[in-house]
Task: inverse folding
């Protein structure tokens, strides 16, 4: 009787050590890959619309980036020819990076010495300019609305639909050349989709009703006139409701034959501008196709991780969705900078008397909802060896 027990113990111990060695080897390989990226020269990047509010956020977030080096800045003709320090009215709450200060501002035309361009351009000019850069071979990561709904253009939140990046190959084939355009969503869509994504996977979303309270920084600079917004709420943001209603369905849609089939649920959105500096708050009610509970919703959101977390991308929040248990949270003033502004915060999860469940969502509109999202998209493609 002793011999079989000893043999079993021997096998168990050896199995434990084999698993431990395998885990260590995986970690060593990860460290090796990271060190390889660190040792290689950084990838040169540029920012289009660099003097605007979103462009400045790109410049701020790219300072000391481990993979990317800000090498080029471009803006309007009136800024071209000046140094960036001379051309920009710096609005960020951190100092203007010294490296960026001396960069010459170039016009928004192909020619900058870089492989990647991040576009913070206004929609009035972004469409044509981004198309020109892609045609000239650049990898364009756009924050503008112009290309988001193109059949061959990925509209990506990496945690949710990284597989949509395969549209890049269809885009190259359709348009010719080696360049391409990848878009991130509208700022308010970002946090709605982040909250709905894991729940749609688990329970199937059927209907969505969402009301937003959106920060003034989302309107750019100078944005909304002070006499219009101080002590007031403006119950209209041009084009915002339509973006939320369609972009959310594309992001959570299914990629089939190089085309995205929109997710088969309905979104009704009402958007409001409120006197808050940073942070979009959204009150969401949702109906599911499958049974859910407050506990299972919290568990699904809290435990959700995506590809950026698996790859430990530089800008990825370790926990992309944070569930808050306090009755009065999340709040923009106290919570919006969680995980450097890259997390989506969800609170007040409870039953809804009209649909199934309701909750409150918060996210930083100019970081995760704009520049940070584009940078994360570029990090993912870089990690995948596609840049």
Result:
């Amino acid at each position: 009787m002793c011999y079989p027990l000893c043999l079993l113990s021997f096998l168990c111990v050896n199995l434990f050590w084999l698993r431990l060695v395998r885990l260590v080897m995986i970690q060593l390989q990860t460290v090796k890959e990271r060190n390889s990226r660190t040792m290689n020269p950084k990838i040169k990047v540029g920012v289009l619309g660099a003097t605007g509010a979103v462009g400045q956020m790109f410049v701020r977030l790219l300072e000391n980036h481990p993979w990317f080096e800000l090498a080029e800045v471009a803006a309007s003709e009136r800024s071209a020819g000046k140094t960036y320090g001379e051309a920009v009215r710096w609005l960020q709450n951190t100092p203007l990076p010294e490296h960026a200060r001396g960069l010459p501002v170039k016009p928004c035309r192909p020619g900058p010495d870089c492989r990647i361009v991040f576009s913070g351009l206004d929609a009035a000019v972004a469409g044509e300019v981004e198309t020109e850069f892609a045609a000239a071979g650049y990898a364009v990561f756009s924050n503008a609305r112009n290309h988001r709904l193109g059949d061959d253009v990925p509209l990506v939140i990496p945690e949710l639909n990284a597989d949509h990046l395969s549209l890049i190959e269809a885009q190259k084939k359709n348009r010719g050349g080696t360049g391409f355009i990848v878009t991130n969503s509208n700022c308010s869509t970002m946090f709605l989709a982040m909250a709905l994504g894991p729940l749609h996977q688990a329970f199937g979303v059927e209907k969505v009703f969402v009301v937003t309270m959106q920060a003034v920084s989302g309107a750019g600079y100078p944005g909304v006139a002070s006499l219009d917004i101080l002590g007031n709420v403006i119950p209209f943001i041009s084009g915002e409701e339509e973006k939320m209603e369609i972009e959310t369905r594309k992001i959570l849609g299914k990629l089939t034959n190089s085309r995205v089939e929109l997710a088969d649920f309905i979104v009704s959105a009402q958007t409001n501008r409120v006197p808050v500096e940073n942070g979009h708050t959204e009150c969401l009610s949702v109906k599911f196709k499958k049974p859910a509970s407050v506990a299972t919703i919290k568990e699904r959101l809290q435990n959700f991780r995506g590809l950026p977390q698996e790859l430990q991308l530089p800008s990825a929040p370790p926990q992309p969705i944070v569930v808050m248990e306090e009755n009065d949270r999340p709040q923009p003033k106290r919570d919006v900078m969680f995980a450097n502004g890259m997390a989506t915060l969800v609170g007040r999860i409870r039953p809804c008397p009209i649909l199934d469940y309701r909750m409150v969502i918060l996210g930083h509109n100019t970081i995760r909802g704009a520049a940070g999202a584009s940078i994360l998209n570029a990090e993912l493609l870089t990690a995948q060896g596609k840049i």
About this structure: Confidence is low (pLDDT under 50) at residues 1-8, 26-33.
